[in-house]
């Protein structure tokens, strides 16, 4: 792994996650990421730990200070309490690192203390898909399919009156019916509740989207609640409080499970959106007059070049490659 940057790569990654990296530093990070797949995997694990620590902090409802005091009391040896080594101030340039470290330590210590001091609680499991789609079976028999770069956290055993899981990214759920114990997914500040159904949940920086295949799903954000049925979706924008219900117009949400992109009178701009996401590409449409041209076909696990070749021939448009940029015109 290449880490011979001007300073430690971990410091740069923390600054990037805190949105404190300069343009030059971000370029340096991007170059490091492109150097090898190992670097990319290192970053994914780094980001996962970062995001999960924040999520665990939000999940912990205990008095962390009191819990930690009880935890220390239980672990003291007969010789007395372990000495506390003070943390002296660092240089101003590393303030952001102290903030990041405190966030992780507070979250992890609070949650670990809570689990250790409450043995009746099941151990939390964390599953990450990395760079591939992953299928996992939950303790109740429910099946979850994680899209790449997604994570799910859930207890080793579902106890109490609900089946609670936490999601980051995108996943398709096929939930085992149990009316006595609702299945609840926490996605940032959005809650998805079901008793037994199949549906897709997708979360990104702009919005959270839930699409139902079977059954009934309840989507809530603060005081707003919407119930959606098959061929319907609920959309929650990060910048708005309400939950919007709409009809589902395509099957693109299924692509990572089926390996197929099904186009039914699909406008070019919509297809380009999903191609950019699926292949992590940079495709742009140069001419506005071709954006709404529609296409009817199914792309079955084809390469990006093969897919674009078919699009170009079908819609009679040009496909030009300029490095990583692909222009349709």
Q: If you had to describe this structure to a student in words, what would you say it looks like?
A:
Strand 7 and strand 8 form a beta hairpin. The chain has helices at about 10-15, 25-35, 35-60, 65-75, 95-115, 255-260, 270-280, 305-315; strands spanning about 125-130, 135, 145, 150-155, 165-170, 170-175, 185, 190-195, 200-205, 205-215, 215-220, 225-230, 230-235, 245, 260-265, 280-285, 295-300, 320, 325-329. By secondary structure, it is an alpha+beta fold. Helices cover about 35% and strands about 30% of the residues. It is globular and about 60 Å long. The protein has a 7-stranded mixed β-sheet, with no helix packed on it. It has a 7-stranded antiparallel β-sheet with strand order 2-3-6-9-10-13-14, with no helix packed on it. Residues about 1-5, about 75-95 and about 110-120 have low confidence and may be disordered. Helix 2 crosses helix 3, helix 3 (about 35-60) packs across helix 5 (about 95-115) and helix 4 packs across helix 5 (about 95-115). It has 8 helices and 19 strands.
Helix-strand category:
alpha+beta
For the termini, the CA-CA separation is: 40 Å
Mean pLDDT: 79
The 3D shape can be described as: globular
Give me the Rg, rounded. Answer: 23 Å
**Poorly predicted regions:** 1-7, 74-94, 109-119
